[in-house]
């Protein structure tokens, strides 16, 4: 027997209409490419999203057609999220930090018909437009008078002129909630990037999940600043979850340095921010150097790579800000786990709490997890055993776009490529990417553990631990360190710092100092590059 409730599809358009009706004057503030601060509201954003939908109709785009963006976090990008998906097309957020030939490859693979871009990226567009074989319309996110003449780009027009012709009176279409709404390519650390195609249903369920109190906890009392880019897994779903809850949004545009982010946090009274650890490193450095405090920010979501415990401690003890350590991936929309303490853990002493908060956290309802050994046998949740982490759920990938790579699932579970343990309370802890684990004498060394110790050293700005081949032990750890400006620390200082913090055999065999560690397009340390760079390095005793 079926239930007798209304069968209404979960569609992205309903989010912006809900926000417009119930939170019409909640603000969306954006630092623009033009340099100024722009203010709008959900009501206006909804009207302009409808104009986007009408303008796409006028271009003759069909259901399911892909619409690319190359843009920072800002109100126009936000409108496109709803206008493109709400009208039945698929928004494809391209990562402008990728090399231009990859942008071309991805746009062609996705068969983007229209491409929107911020003026910052005009040089990239000039270099790639003639090679993007399916794109017919290039739309610059600017006013008509800011559009430069003689760019040579065919089909170029300004966004404001393009939507300016439309009335904004539009009825969103209704269709199957399983229809695609957004496309995002993985960074392709191995081989060509692969497309992850989200549906309206998966996006709305994910937004519900993200907004839960034990996840990111969003509400109409919040003001949120996503530093995480809207071209990186839909800014972790925050634009959708913000519209669902009516939270005020603050978009930082291209200015992601510590000073600019801090100014926005203060002037807009931001209560919560979200970003990768490298961004928060810049922010912390800025506040420390200028002896500043956060007047309104109470929590910050940090994920994308492991957040060093030293950073969680600094935010908590020096600034009264709770770090919510989160884990996920493009294939998971992306949120899988978020670290929030349970009731009984609130009584623990601060150090014991910190040890929990440094974990990647508990699954959000909707995400199932398991850890398995090399034979696929499930491992216990005892906080000790670690194995390959598998996930499943309604916002987790079933196949890649155009079936690239074949069936990615194992018995219906998606293998994340991460190695993790899970404790009896359900707190998951990533020990490594499976390809980054260091296998020394039959034992595994977690590169993240080794990096976390180094990151607590006062002279260390950034640290990466990689495996080097070793004749006796198979592999041994090498620590690559970037010192803080002006800081002095020798190889011996750093190695001495490990005493008592990890087992003796886990201490790196050597330390090398570099000016910078290569970061990928999503701000993660590129260990493949580091392994290449140091493949000739001889470890002492090797
Ligand atoms: P890509 O896989 O394309 O590099 P993703 O953003 O999808 O980009 O990366 C997902 C991976 O990032 C995860 O599988 C995991 O290895 C890593 N990651 C994400 N969040 C964390 C975290 N909090 N701690 C450790 N690793 C993380």
Question: Could you list some keywords that capture this structure?
Answer:
seven-stranded mixed β-sheet, GMP Synthetase, Chain A, domain 3, nine-stranded mixed β-sheet, Rossmann fold, Luciferase, domain 3, alpha/beta, binds adenosine-5'-diphosphate, globular
Kindly describe this structure.
It is a single chain. The chain has 542 residues and is α/β, with parallel strands linked by helices. Among the domains are: 12-217, Rossmann fold; 369-433, Roll (Luciferase, domain 3); 437-533, ANL, C-terminal domain (GMP Synthetase, Chain A, domain 3), CATH 3.30.300.30. It has 16 helices and 25 strands. The strands form five sheets. It has a nine-stranded mixed beta sheet, with helices on both faces. A seven-stranded mixed beta sheet has the order 7-6-5-3-4-8-9, sandwiched between helices. α5 (122-128) links the parallel β5 (112-117) and β6. The longest helix is centred in the first third of the chain and has 18 residues, at 42-59. It is globular. The protein starts with 11 loop residues before the first helix and ends in a 9-residue tail after the last helix. The model has no long low-confidence stretch (mean pLDDT 95). The structure holds adenosine-5'-diphosphate (ADP). Adenosine-5'-diphosphate is lined by residues 186-187, 189, 233, 303-306, 325-327, 329-330, 334, 360, 416-418, 430, 433, 522. Adenosine-5'-diphosphate (ADP) binds next to β14, β19 and β20.
